Amino acid sequence: MKITTAIFDLDGTLLNTLGDLCDSVNCAVMRRGFPAVTEEQTRQRVGNGVRNLIRQCIPENKCTEAMIDICLDEFRTAYTERMMNRTQPYDGIQPLLKQLKKAGVSVGVLSNKYDLAAKSLIRHYFGDLVQITYGERPDTPRKPDPTSALQLLRELGGDPATTLYIGDSAVDMQTAKNAGLTAVGVTWGFRSAAELKAAGADALVDAPAELLPLFERGLFNVDAICKAFTSRGFGFTYFPTAADALPYLTDTCAGRSVTLGGSMTLQEMGFPDAFSNSTAVHWHWVRKGEYFQKPDIYLSSANALSENGEVVNIDGTGNRVSATLFGPKRCIFVCGINKLCPDLESAVERARHVAAPLNAKRLGVQTPCAVDGKCHDCKSPARICRAMTIHMGPPLGMERCEIVLIGEPLGY
User: Fold this and answer.
1) 283-297 residue pLDDT tens
2) What are the boundaries of each domain within the chain?
3) Cα–Cα distance between 37 and 24 in angstroms, integer?
4) SS3 for 219?
5) What residues contact 282, with CB distance under 8 A and at least 6 apart?
6) With bands split at pLDDT 50, 70 and 90, how would you rate the model's confidence at 139?
7) What is the pLDDT of residues 50-73, one digit of tens each?
């Protein structure tokens, strides 16, 4: 189902406001002789309104309602002067909002920051890319109460069934749940993925570009994806978390010869150390340049999967993609949900414009994409995009080729 409306949190989601918030808090509390707060302390305390932020920054033995009022007034004065000094949009947010506008998605912002500041920041950094902004207002309960979210949704002309609520904190996830909206947690903000998941996030994303597929298709349907892959002859298994998938993979590989290509997904899951002692492991990250192309099992990830049942990979040396095509008795593609795209075109787009630049940057190669995160289809001698494969079905002669899809972001 195509998503038509988005409600974003502000601090930690669209804008990195931490530096200016911390500086302004210190202007208020240090003037009263109280200890300065760090950016990390500010990070943990922000999100429930500025009054709660100030309350937590005043020593307990001095924390009266009158003192909170004094410091809050001084904070607001300081923040009005400083709120655009160090604040910046997160990388990828401007392009995301531009694409949403082009696609006709209605966009609103809901923040527990006081209303004047929220509106000023959105107007300054995003202009007409955001239609309506609500901050904290008198006589209106703040998040996670759903009142403001539902009012904003009505003004945007949205339907709860086709709306994403996107934020970086437990408060945001709770707001979405209270309002009957789909809760999407972003991991680049002020809170951890674990906190977002515990608060009920329906999906997690690691980069703004990963939101775009959600607007195209909404949250994924595991049964439909399973059918798309199995109808092409692939095996398919879904696990909600990497921890759930790990026993399946280690049990499947136990006592067999296994080769792994370079994969951040597998590294994040703890391979090769996660294997049992009975597994004969070959991995070129362990002994660089040593490749074993005819194992019992080739364990890999993919740069992208399409919901139509296709697998897309880009490679430089070619050992990784070639081993998924010929040699092993069995191939297993292990992929986080961030790799899933609505169709083949968007899967190729993801491989070129998300996965490849991130890998180039990780490897420290001197290519344009490693600098700006965009594919230039360059002719650089350091280019790592040398071959692209699209699996439309299992290679002939391979005993089994399967997809292990994991319902959390993993790798690039």
Assistant:
1) 766 565 566 778 999
2) 5-14+87-217, 18-82, 222-406
3) 10
4) coil
5) 257, 258, 259, 260, 290, 291, 292, 295
6) confident
7) 888 999 999 988 899 999 999 999
| Cα separation, 96 vs 129, whole angstroms | 10
CB atoms inside a 10 Å sphere around CB 325: 15
Residue 352 contacts residue 385 (beta carbons within 8 Å): yes
Q: Can you name the residues that pair with 254 across neighbouring β-strands?
A: none
Distance CA 401, CA 412 (A): 21
Question: Do 5-14+87-217 and 222-406 show the same overall fold?
Answer: yes
Topology at the third CATH level for domain 222-406: Rossmann fold (3.40.50)
The answer to whether residues 330 and 296 touch, using CB atoms and an 8 Å cutoff, is yes
Q: What's the rounded Cα separation, in Å, for the pair 54 and 154? A: 32
Instruction: Spell out the residues 6+ positions from residue 211 whose beta carbon is closer than 8 angstroms to its own.
Output: 96, 164, 166, 184, 205
Whether the model clears a pTM of 0.85, i.e. scores above it, the answer is no
Edge-to-edge strand list for the sheet holding 311-315: 340-341, 304-306, 311-315, 387-391
Nearest 5°: phi and psi at 292? -125, 105
Q: Which has the closest alpha carbon to 20: 11, 29, 30?
A: 11
> Which amino acid is present at 72?
L
Dihedral of the alpha carbons of 43, 46, 51, 55, in degrees to the nearest 10: -40
**Which CATH superfamily groups domain 5-14+87-217?**
HAD superfamily/HAD-like (3.40.50.1000)
**HSE of 203 in the Cβ direction (CA atoms, 13 Å)?**
24
Across 208-310, the runs of DSSP E, i.e. the strands, are 235-239, 257-260, 280-283, 297-300, 304-306
Residue 90 per-residue DSSP state: P
Q: What is the DSSP letter of 169?
A: S
- 64, exposed or middle or buried, with CB in 10 Å at 0-12, 13-18, 19+? exposed
